């Protein structure tokens, strides 16, 4: 039966080596004049004796907790846990822990979440803002992940170019009448994706935009989108701005007897974890979340460092006008457009002969 050993303190390491605690501290922090030979002995002693640095002591010494905050707009959306995981991995690689808060899609909750994280002493905060909101001065270093068109954005996917890629894909399949499906016009991300889709489809492709929030304001949450009528009107492709909407469209089309992709194509954005396993698998755009997370953490870390200079104060992470490229993932929910089927109308006039 093994017995866990109590971690050694810096004082105990100093006593074991016959040096002062200050010498041990300087060797471990890289400060002061400590020879390379002694530094190596001290570091080996920390391993042999099981020394664990005190975060509380480090906080008192540096004024930093080594923890950053992450505010997400809706943890129930499958995309945001994926973002949280990427941020946590990038933060851990940079030496930070992460506290996560959920704004639940409400501006007031977003403000409250930011306040709670600041109260807990985080060194800085990464915010994925609730759609239609802007993050002003919050009194601590901050990085924003939204869209290149968002004022103050730090890093994000190139949502416009993702739309262009999908628009060209659908046009290349011969679709001449496309319904673009978005949730809200208040979202910069959704607006950029819609704009890119239109640009990618080109001027010769007929398209309309359906805003689900407007429809639900009239018919209620979760109402039918009326896609069967669109199919009857000649629409052969339905391009949603995220995979949850694409799944909603796909489900409705199949329920109403429309074969996907033979009679209608469906596409989305974000490549959620289930997008490849539904039937048929959804054609979508994949975000490079690892790169976005790395850049966000790096920019926030730089802002934290800048805020520690004599005239620093709370800093906003360096802004980027260039988005991270998205990858088109073609699956079985999109296919060649069907030729329009002309159904002859019977002549019901009475025979006048």
Summarize the structure.
By secondary structure, this protein is an alpha/beta fold. 40% of the residues lie in helices and 12% in strands.
Q: Overview of this structure, please?
A:
This is LacI family transcriptional regulator. InterPro entries: Cro/C1-type_HTH (IPR001387), HTH_LacI (IPR000843), LacI/GalR-like_sensor (IPR046335), Lambda_DNA-bd_dom_sf (IPR010982), Peripla_BP_I (IPR028082). Keywords: DNA-binding, Transcription, Transcription regulation. GO terms for molecular function: DNA-binding transcription factor activity; transcription cis-regulatory region binding. It comes from Aliirhizobium smilacinae. The protein has 353 residues and is α/β, with parallel strands linked by helices. It has 3 domains: 44 residues, no CATH class; 127 residues, Rossmann fold (3-Layer(aba) Sandwich), CATH 3.40.50.2300; 129 residues, Rossmann fold (3-Layer(aba) Sandwich), CATH 3.40.50. It contains 12 helices and 10 strands. It has a 4-stranded parallel beta sheet. Helix 1 packs across helix 2. The relative contact order is 0.12. The C terminus is likely disordered.
């Amino acid at each position: 039966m093994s017995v866990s050993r109590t971690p050694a303190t810096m004082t105990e390491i100093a006593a074991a080596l016959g040096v002062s605690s200050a010498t041990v501290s300087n060797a471990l922090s890289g400060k002061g004049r400590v020879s390379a030979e002694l530094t190596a002995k001290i570091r080996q002693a920390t391993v042999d004796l099981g020394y664990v640095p005190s975060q509380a002591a480090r906080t008192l010494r540096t004024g930093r907790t080594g923890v950053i905050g992450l505010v997400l707009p809706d943890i129930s959306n499958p995309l945001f846990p994926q973002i949280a995981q990427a941020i946590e991995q990038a933060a851990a690689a940079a030496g930070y822990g992460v506290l996560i808060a959920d704004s639940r899609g409400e501006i007031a909750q977003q403000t409250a979440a930011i306040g709670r994280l600041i109260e807990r002493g985080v060194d800085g905060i990464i915010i994925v803002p609730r759609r239609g909101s802007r993050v002003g001065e919050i009194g601590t270093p901050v990085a924003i992940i939204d869209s290149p068109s968002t004022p103050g954005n730090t890093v994000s996917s190139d949502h416009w170019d993702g739309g262009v890629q999908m628009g060209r894909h659908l046009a290349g399949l011969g679709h001449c009448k496309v319904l673009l499906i978005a949730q809200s016009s208040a979202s910069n991300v959704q607006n950029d994706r819609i704009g890119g889709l239109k640009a990618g489809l080109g001027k010769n492709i007929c398209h309309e935009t359906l805003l689900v929030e407007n429809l639900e304001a009239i018919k209620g949450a979760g109402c039918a989108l009326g896609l069967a009528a669109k199919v009857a009107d000649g629409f052969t492709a339905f391009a949603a701005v995220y995979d949850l909407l694409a799944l909603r469209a796909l489900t409705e089309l199949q329920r109403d007897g429309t074969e996907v992709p033979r009679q209608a194509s469906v596409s989305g954005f974000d490549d959620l974890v289930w997008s490849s396993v539904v039937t048929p698998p959804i054609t979508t755009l994949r975000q490079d979340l690892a790169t976005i997370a790395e850049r966000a953490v790096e920019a926030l870390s730089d802002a934290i460092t800048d805020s520690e200079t004599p005239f620093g104060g709370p800093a906003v992470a360096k802004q980027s006008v260039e988005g991270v490229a998205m990858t088109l993932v073609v699956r079985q929910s999109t296919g060649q457009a069907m030729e329009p089927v002309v159904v002859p109308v019977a002549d019901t006039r009475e025979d006048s002969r």
